[in-house]
From TrEMBL:
NCBIfam families: PRK08245.1, PRK12764.1. This is Fumarylacetoacetate hydrolase family protein. The keyword Acetylation does not apply. The keyword Metal-binding applies.
Length: 513
């Protein structure tokens, strides 16, 4: 065994991190991936035992994640899982820390959030990999001496050898390269002053026991001011819950996140470091404004801005009279073809990934090309969307299990009820790309408002001003309705001429006083 030193960090040409690999974490995130996925970190993100984890000014959440790090010991190219472990030279502890406030713009690459200089300490001791049983290692994390994480590599979704073999199929792993193998449940947030410790230990092949010792690093305020050349820190309550692990840990009332916005994200992702889902323009205040006005009013405001084609048409609700406001997530189907459905329609397909990736406040919009000859949503997936806190599901295709779906809390809109399964007419194809639904273009991140009058799509950049003007319009129309109820003729009142407008403004001024 040897202590990890700066020379080992300098030898790391590549640092590759696994998104999800522990069942405990997958359960926390609500999905189990079918294959491993990765993101690349710069070698300059590495740090040693004792280094400080700096939090820049304006950043709220420093996330910390205990992990097992593999150090490649020999040049590795296209090896089999049976031979892969022999190419690992050492094992050590890692803290794959990050800045959650900067996760939103990078579409799952985590470049800024987890690529910060010195954000990922490893060490302090390198354990000889070939003396260890890779299936019998334990990873633990403490914050200020209190246990936060503990799990065993015996539970891994993708064993170490599979990760090495998988990566080596397409890229050469060089000696010194590092693979961060994923974090278990319990990853959380550390504040300035907190001491974060990670240890990896486990059995050797000869019955002994080895440990890395505790990798110790303290979080501090770095004083770094981020210049406004690019993305700046941004968070929603949903982000805070993702980072802390629960609403209670984040100090947020359960359910409040459903009124909050979302982050960028990929369709196959979940709320975690692999998040690549679209950003949301919604705040709790904006959501409440949109809930307070009708889609008819919003349609007028969009038309005043030259937006004539922002209506999803021809759909029926499962819960008449319900209202939904949320951030658009999208799923696109292509016409059924037997060979394509065989390859892409089964298993953990795009439809399941899209539903599994929903966050509180999301609205899943399905592009089924207006094809009504099969279901595109059924009771199981609708229930999954409901459990995840989605605001609604909208499809211009059919809905199976229409009765059970109608009985759920989550509202859905569809073209018709239909008993046939997906593969009769569709192949689930793509997640979180621009789609067409009910005659409207929908971009991931658009704001969707649906009520008994219909469904409108509001470009995210317009949502705030449209909502403000819609509230003002409905206040004005309510005043006009009161005058009509008093017996006044609508001519000159609706719309208001100069005299009525002046009277309205005077009364509003008195009300504000």
């Amino acid at each position: 065994m040897e202590h990890l030193a700066q020379e080992h960090l300098d030898a790391a040409g590549k640092v590759i991190a696994v998104h999800l690999n522990y069942p405990s974490r997958a359960a926390q995130r609500g999905r189990t991936p079918a294959v491993p996925s990765y993101f690349l970190k710069p070698a300059t993100s590495l740090a040693l035992h004792g280094a400080e984890l700096g939090r820049p000014n304006g950043v709220e959440l420093v996330t910390v994640e205990g992990e097992v790090a593999l150090v490649i010991g020999a040049r590795t190219r296209n090896v089999s899982p049976e031979d892969a472990w022999a190419h690992v030279g050492a094992v050590t502890a890692a803290n794959d820390a990050g800045l959650a406030d900067l996760r939103w713009p990078d579409k799952g690459s985590n470049l800024r959030s987890k690529g910060v200089d010195g954000i990922a300490p490893i060490g302090p001791v390198l354990l000889p990999a070939q003396e260890l049983d890779p299936h019998a290692l334990r990873v633990r994390m403490w914050i200020n001496g209190e246990p936060a994480q503990e799990d065993s590599t015996s539970t891994l979704l993708f064993p170490f050898a599979q990760l090495v073999a998988d990566l080596s199929r397409l890229m050469t792993l060089e000696p010194g390269d590092i693979i961060l193998t994923g974090t278990p449940a319990g990853a959380t947030v550390a504040r300035p002053g907190d001491l974060v410790e990670v240890e990896v230990d486990g059995a050797t092949l000869d019955g002994g026991h080895l440990t890395t010792g505790r990798l110790s690093n303290r979080v501090v305020d770095s004083g770094l001011e981020l210049a406004p050349y690019g993305a700046l820190p941004r968070l929603t309550d949903a982000d805070r819950i993702d980072a802390w692990g629960s609403p209670e840990a984040a100090g947020i009332q359960p359910g409040a996140e459903a009124r909050d916005g979302a982050r960028p994200g990929e369709g196959a992702a979940t709320p975690s470091s692999e998040d690549t889902r679209p950003a949301s323009a919604l705040t709790p205040e904006l959501t409440e404004k949109l809930r307070s006005v009708g889609t008819a009013t919003l349609s007028v405001q969009l038309r005043r801005r030259g937006m004539q084609n922002c209506h999803i048409e021809g759909l029926i609700p499962t819960k008449p009279g319900v209202k939904a406001v949320g951030t658009a997530r999208t799923l696109r189907y292509i016409p059924a073809r037997e060979d394509l459905f065989k390859e892409f329609g089964g298993g953990y397909n795009a439809q399941k990934r899209a539903v599994d990736s929903l966050r509180p406040g999301d609205i899943l919009v399905m592009d089924a090309r207006g094809e009504k000859g099969s279901g595109t949503l059924g009771d199981v997936l609708a229930l999954r969307a409901q459990v995840l806190g989605a605001a609604a599901v909208i499809t211009d295709g059919g809905i199976r299990d229409f009765g059970p779906v109608s009985g759920m809390d989550i509202p859905a809109w569809g073209a018709t009820a239909h008993p046939a399964v997906l593969g009769r007419r569709h192949v689930p194809w793509a997640v979180d790309e621009t789609v067409a639904c009910g005659g409207a273009a929908v971009v991931p991140g658009d704001v969707i408002v649906a009520d008994e009058d219909g469904i409108v799509v509001i470009p995210a950049a317009l949502a705030e001003e449209v909502a403000d003007d819609a509230v003002a319009q409905e206040r004005e129309e309510a005043w006009v309705a009161e005058r009509v109820a008093e017996g006044h003729a609508v001519d000159g009142l609706f719309p208001m001429n100069r005299e009525w407008r002046a009277r309205y403004e005077r009364e509003q001024d008195r009300t504000r006083q």
